[in-house]
Structures are given as C-alpha cells and as structure tokens.
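Re: the 80-residue chain
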Amino acid sequence: MDVITSLSIYREALIGAVWTLDAFPVELDAFADRERKVLDSAIKSVEADIRFHRDEADIRFHRDTDRPNGPTFLIFSRTS
C-alpha cells in the first residue's frame, strides 16, 4: 500500500472519529474518551507515514490547535 492510499484510508477513519467527537460536549464521557484515543492513535500513524514518506508523498500535515477542548482536525493538502 503506497502512502497516498494509506493517507486516504486514515483520512476516512479520522473524519468519522472527528464527527463522533464533535457531537459530544466539552466534558467527554467514557465513549468519547475512547474515540479520542482511537483518533490520537490514527494521528500518530499518519504522522509516522508522512515522516517516512515525506519526499515521495509531498503532503503537509496540519493540526488545528485553536480549540484545546475540542476535537482534533486534520487537513491534508497537496503541495506544489
């Protein structure tokens, strides 16, 4: 599986996790906490893929930290 395919699969999983987290209030219950752990694990996998394939993939990774109590958002963009 190449890095672009990997990132596409991760992105689909992360969109679902972010949507789930965003549906909960700031005080997360046990289910939302478990979802956050899944999301954090997926983020680490994406970061590792990008570091390993940085020259091949030409993709930048951005983490939105404007909402410290909210979910983590990921933006995948092609760079030129």
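Confidence is low (pLDDT under 50) at residues 1-6, 17-28, 53-64, 70-80.
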